[in-house]
Amino acid sequence: MAEKKNFIKSNSRAGGVIISGPCSAETEEQVLQTAQRLVATGKVDLFRAGIWKPRTRPGMFEGIGAAALPWLQQAKKITGLPTTVEIATAKQVEEALKFDVDVLWIGARTTVNPFSVQEVADALKGVDIPVLIKNPINPDIELWQGAVERIEKAGIKNIGLIHRGFSSYGNTEYRNAPMWHLAIEMRSRNLNKIFICDPSHIGGKRNLLQELSQKSIDLGYDGLMIETHITPDIAWSDAAQQITPEALKELLEKIIWRKEICDETEQNELQILRLQIDQLDDELLHILSKRMKIADTIGVYKKQNNITILQAARWNSILDRAFKKNIPLDLSVEFIKKYFEAVHLESIAHQNKVMNS
Ligand code: PEP
Ligand code: MN
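Above: the input record for the complex with phosphoenolpyruvate. Below: its predicted structure, written as tokens.
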């Protein structure tokens, strides 16, 4: 915990680490004004701006490039806010360092590519700078962990993680599906690292920011990265998701910050409830094991009588029955589906083993 706190000095009056600034640096005026209006909120710890922008299609605005680095340096001088930029190549690392960028971040399209992450890692050997690593665009936490390991092996001690959601086909509500369970798994593998949520790139729309931010704070994230712009509607990139610095202040004021550490009474009360959960979980495991033993017996019967394992009608009737039974139980439909799919798969695996033994 202590290590986390030292990572980015949190001077702000918000309850967690707040990283904010435009998706892209566009003009000197825009960079300086955004930084000044952000520092005026008293709630921001680190000023972000994209200067090399990985865009989906050529011909879109690909960032100002190194020419924007002096603007960031100037913004830091005027506001005192440390700065962070996205880097994806050795040359970009070198240029960012020349202009005293304080924290580097690796973007989602870079984390996905071990060649690129290794190139960045090699360029960082012997450099003492914090690095934030966004999740890869595809839902693969091994790649994310791999990037962490490459950067760690280069000798970087301060590494943080940013959850920005995952690409998924046909996803309409979010620009990038949050898949919170993957992020939580990643966090539990990296408990000593600061864990930041980027609701801007998850949501893709400004009206989703409040709810996504609150959700991540409820889950115990250490802070937020939120894109801000002086005139969001005419931003050169990601216009739909950016908000003004003043709107950021309002958003942060509405957040209910949660604490991770509880006092003794709270610990005891939670402990009583947790023991009840442990007890029920134990019972569930025993019941599941009993259920699978019956599946084994069915497997023996099917083998003796030459019947196929999979019988579609039976599967549909199991699900129908579960949905009906669930009406007074109030479990979500998604949960019922996922649970029965998992049980069904395990059952098939058991029967398969019996049939082929
Ligand atoms: C960004 O932060 O502007 C960005 C490009 O994000 P991501 O790598 O998450 O797409
Ligand atoms: Mn962006």
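Notes for the reader.
The two ends are 51 Å apart (CA to CA).
Strands lie at 17-21, 46-48, 83-86, 103-106, 131-134, 159-163, 194-197, 223-227.
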